[in-house]
Amino acid sequence: MSTPSTPHQTMWTAEEIGFLAGGPGRAAEAVLARLLDGGLVRVSREGLVTAVHQNAYGATSPLEAYVLAGLHGTPRPVQQVVQVAMTSHEMGALHQSLVARGVVRSSWGRPRGGKTALRVVLFLVAFASLFVALAVEPLVLVLTGMVLVTALLLRDKGRLTANGKIVVRYAFRSTSSGAEAVALFGLRRGKQRAVKSSGSSTPHVGSGCGSYDWSHHGCGGSSNCSSASSCGSSSCSSSSSSSSSCSSSSSSSSCGSSSN
Amino acid sequence: MAGIEDLGVGIGWRPEIDLTVERLPGVDFVEVVAENLHIGHLPESVALLLERGVPVLPHAVSLSLGGADEVDLHRVEHLGAVAEAVGAPMVSDHVCFVRAGGLDSGHLMPVPRTRDALDVLVANVKLAQANLPVPLALENVAALLEWPDGELSEGQFLAELVERTDCWLLVDVANLYANARNIGTDPERFLDEIPLERLAYVHVAGGEQHGDIYHDTHAHAVLPEVLEVLDELCSRVSPPGVLLERDDNYPSDAEIEAELAAIRAVVDKHRG
Lengths: 260, 272
Prior knowledge:
The complex is a heterodimer. Chain A is mainly alpha-helical. Chain A has helices spanning about 15-20, 25-35, 60-70, 80-85, 90-100, 115-135, 140-155, 160-175, 180-195, and strands at about 10-15, 40-45, 50, 75, 210-215, 220, 245. Helix content of chain A is about 45%, strand content about 5%. The longest helix of chain B is centred in the last third of the chain and has 19 residues, at about 255-270. The mean pLDDT of chain B is about 95.
């Protein structure tokens, strides 16, 4: 199925890589792509997703089971499937498992409230002190520098920890399935990379996934997937495994991949 | 068979399985539910199939030709417009009624097999035919009940309908099987009585037994017994076309392909 991946020789599934690379929306897209890869759902040209089997047959994770259960007897637009999966408890559990494995922070997102205001004030102070330094007293430049450094230190940290960034970096080098491509690039760009050579017709599906602030369980600030994406049919029928794999220990060793 | 070309083996096109239908090998023709299509805005998939030269046949479910209400000519005109939009050689609906007294049943209700009901049906069919640009085929329905005081068997009823209207027949072998299971009709007698030379094509579909009732669900696998009815039909006539209907719980592409292959095997067996 897969080989270990850094850090700590861990296996990373497409949905995990999706979460790391693009947040919950991307993870949901990766789940959908994996289910398509496995022939467990089908997507129509208009972007309607239907389950191929009943009773969540074939699911390999709670999130996949959740998505399949939501499709039981009811076709749903891709966008809706992604949105619902994004805010599910199963997505929360995936987030927590990634936090526990030290690759994702427990919260992230755009700066909010007083922190943002403080940074704005600090930048204004830095600008003013720079003006004073240039016009009156060059030594004030020291103050300018200190204020700028403080403002930069107050910036919000990203979703990923250092280990998380390593995993994503390796995943980018070792994409081996359509689902992994979607995990890394989103449905639109992942599909283009995964089926470049297939020549099949492409359905138009909406796949809205905004950025996400987990602490607020809503769309927020960090994911970068597109608002209208598409998933090709043949991209969804060629491979069944979706675990990223690479072998290394920490920062700079080589990375391979396998899937079947 | 004048007017009806050799269609081969086909499948009902549905939006949920549009890509599947496009990819399946050996789909010679497709059928679309006319009420679900909008003139001037054909689904991309249907347009693609037309470009490939795959015949697309409109199939209606709402003309209610067996009803006592006046035929809704808007529905007939829409059916005709769809036929022209897809270049169809024929259209079809059912020998049934779906509306009465301003209510819509949501089901294809069987028509009482009386001479009075036949007169009404014939009049409605003639009116529809006069407003359609292509020939009309009519399909036998699955029934869970038989109206009392029937004067004709289903085969006799359809035979007389054909004789009086010159319509074509769309024989659903799954419905024949369902009726045999549920109300004890005899598919062989039906096939004996209908004018097989007026056969346009054949429907095949799956169903499921619920207690004492067999439901023609179009959402389950085609039973071997249904294929046996098809086999019986093919032993009498080479049908211009045979079409698999699947309307829900769409299985994998492989399963659909296998069902089409099973149908084709039955057809080919008799074609030698």
